[in-house]
Structure formats: C-alpha cells, structure tokens
Amino acid sequence: MALGEIAAPAAVEQLLLTLDGSAGNAGHRQLAAWALKTLGPEHLSPEQRAMVNILLNEWSDLPELGEAAVGPLVDMLEETTPRVQREAIETLTRIEDPAAISALQELLRHPDDGIRRMASQVAVQFAWERIGDAHLAMAAVTLERWQTVICLGPAAIDTLVEVIRTSDSPVQQRAIQALGEIGDPRAVPALVDASTHADVAVRQAATAALEQITDQSQSDANEGATALGCDTDGNSPPSANT
User: Fold this and answer.
1) Which of 55, 93, 178, 202 is most enclosed, with most CB atoms within 10 A?
2) Dihedral (Cα; 176, 178, 183, 187), 10-degree rounding
3) In the prediction, which pLDDT does 8 show?
C-alpha cells in the first residue's frame, strides 16, 4: 500500500484500532505502530505516540511524553515478555511526572508475583528516594531484604503487620522477628493476634517479639538499628542489598 493510501482517514482509523489492541495480534500491532510512525505524530495523541514507541522498543523517547506515557507502559505489563516488562518498569522511573511514581507504587502491590518482584527490584535500584519509605519497605519485604526493612523502622510497620496477617508461616516468622527488632509498640496488637496462631513457630516468634518490645525503649531500638549498619545520611537506601 502506498503512503498516500495509508494516510487516508479510513486507513489511519484502522491502524489506530490495531494499535490499541482491539484488532489484530502483536505482530499486527507492531506493523501498525511502524506505519503510524512513518506518517508522523500529527495523527496521534500523546498516549498513542507512547504506545507506538513501546511497540517499536524506542524506550528513550518515552520520558519526554510525561504522564501520557504512564498508562500505556502499565497496560503493556499484562501482555508482554519479562524483558519488555522490565524495560517498561524502568522507564517509569525516568519519567518526572508524579503519575509515574504513583504507578510504580501501585505495581508494588500487583497480584502477579513476577511483576510485583520486578517492580520491587527496579524501585529499590532506581527510585528508592522517590517512592517513600513505606513503599520502599513494601519492596524490601517482597525481595525478603529484611535488614533493609528493619532499618526503615516505623515506616515498615504497616507492611509487616499486613505480611503477618496474610503470608505463609516462614515469611510470617521473619516479619514478626523484624517487628521485634524495630521495637515499635504499634505492632503489639498484631503480635498479640499472632501469638495465638495455629503454627507453633509463629506463636513462639510472636511471643519473643512482644518480649523484645516490652524490654526495649524506642531509643534502644534506634541505637540497635545504627549498630546493625543502617544508613542514616539519606544518600543511599538503608542496607539495600541485604
């Protein structure tokens, strides 16, 4: 088909339908993306330009599109390979718009374990300063970087409480131990609940953590975190690799 025929309104409309996935398979979508790129950006909304760049693996052009690129990047995660998923998540960290960080924070709760773990790895590596301590704790728990979790202290409490209420016993036990080492009294109700758990190992861990919290003051907990090697200068994620 000649370029003039491709540029006809009806043809452009069909290309856009193929691009958004309502018609055609992945190969057809890539061909549509190539044709639309050839025609020029005047036929495309910013979101459509973002999808064209994603389908053509032109990741470096996406950050300049800002918020318009966020939705297409997130949508692509559900229907592509792990390599492209990784590229999409890393690209979110290079977009300055707050919507990109909000999307990354949501991915830390994604129901798919692979996507959640990948988002956690990217967040810790590239965006730990921007996602906030509570979300960094979420990522660190997913990656089972327990020293990082402990070093985050009170910011990790809500995540750890959720873990001991929803996860399997081995992870519950480690989360309970982390709560004991942090020493924040806000964890006490959840630990009291865990002390009646059906699994004896979980009960024992909860009892020990409650004793730790009772025995130490908050200043002792802070000194303990420093002694464990937690970074406190704000220039690097605390114990990010442990």
Assistant:
1) 178
2) -40
3) 64
